[in-house]
Amino acid sequence: MIALTGAGGFLGWHTRVAARALGLDVEPIPLGRGFDVSAAANALSGADRVIHLAGVNRADDAEVQAGNAMFAQQLIQALDAAEQRPNAVVYANSTQAGNGGVYGSAKAAAADALRAWCERNGARFIDMRLPNIYGEHGRPFYNSVTATFCHQLAAGDEPRIDVDRELTLLHAQDAADLLLTAETGDSDAVSSTLTVTDLLERLRGMSATYRRGEIPDIADALDRTLFNTYRSFTVPSHLPISHVRHEDARGAFVELIRTHGGTGQTSHSTTVPGITRGEHFHRRKVERFTVIEGRARIALRRVLTDETMVFDVDGGSTVSIDMPTMWAHSITNTGDSTLHTVFWTDDIFDPRNPDTFPESVTP
């Protein structure tokens, strides 16, 4: 079992989704206002690993200092009171720790306090130094510049760069995997470095391509995670995706997918009336559903939430629905004849790593 502070935040949601995909149980630890040491101790008692995400990163200097110290001390109180203490404490630290700034100093002080507790109690302390975290459903103007740029581009606004600098980026799902399983605090192997200008240019190009219903070049792992992050800001406004239908005396022609780079796999399925396919989610793959004959209901739910989207489609309109990452999805034949659907994904199916996790759309 994994105990988790800050479970309701951006990285907390990503960590819970990753844990769900990996088949790990997560127990949120209640910290903050109205702190109840007994409730927190019960939540973490018996955990194999405690992941400490709760903190303050956007506030005045005094609140940043006090808030990070408070959350660390509350966790230590709960650890001391736990009937069965954990074997490891993983701290979501920052690469800014110890840089002389207020935030870096506050993170470093919290790390020191947790490290000291682990040394006193024979637990492993994993000091996970995380760089700029970005990912699906980040909060613009708060979580990351990536979230801000994606939000602005999806809304049709033009982002502005005040200061260009080098960024080290880490996708939230990669960060979650490290927090859940890593034994060291090194994130270099899965992080990427680029400038703010380069980041914006990549996102701007993706946005322009996707607005045409096309898939940008996502051959590179960084580009795929940036594209999935951008897509999360386009739902549901970008869906369904309409296609131009060309008709003449011979019949009709519709282009369903145009990709600009990367792998891809296209398949066709038939579904008898009343049957539902899907009921799963993906963490990384890009997927498009297009009904070419029959009637269907495509339903989606953001994992671990009640946020849903439903689209009723038919072959006569020839529209596509792209599946956002970390949304459970299904397609049901709602007609009285066989449903014909074309599925496209950028990910060539590997049965050893399918990136497909069972999840009912109905919570």
Number of domains: 2
Structural class label: alpha/beta
CATH class of the largest domain: Alpha Beta
Mean pLDDT: 96
CATH architecture of the largest domain: 3-Layer(aba) Sandwich
The CATH superfamily label of the largest domain reads: NAD(P)-binding Rossmann-like Domain
Runs in which pLDDT lies below 50 for 5 or more consecutive residues are none
Could you explain how this protein is built, in words?
- It is a single chain.
- This protein has 363 residues and is an alpha/beta fold.
- The protein has helices at 10-22, 37-44, 61-81, 102-121, 145-154, 172-181, 196-211, 221-232, and strands at 2-5, 26-28, 49-52, 88-94, 124-130, 132-134, 166-171, 192-195, 241-242, 245-248, 251-254, 265-271, 276-281, 287-293, 295-302, 308-314, 319-323, 327-333, 339-345, 357-358.
- It has 2 domains: 2-203, NAD(P)-binding Rossmann-like Domain (Rossmann fold); 241-358, Sandwich (Jelly Rolls), CATH 2.60.120.
- The chain contains 8 helices and 20 strands.
- Strands 2-1-3-4-5 form a 5-stranded parallel beta sheet, sandwiched between helices. A 5-stranded antiparallel beta sheet has the order 9-17-14-19-12, with no helix packed on it.
- Strand 1 (2-5), helix 1 (10-22) and strand 2 form a beta-alpha-beta unit.
- Helix 3 packs parallel to helix 4, helix 5 (145-154) packs parallel to helix 7 (196-211) and helix 5 crosses helix 8 (221-232).
- The longest helix is centred in the N-terminal third of the chain and has 21 residues, at 61-81.
- The radius of gyration is 23 Å and the shape is globular.
- The protein starts with a strand and ends in a 5-residue tail after the last strand.
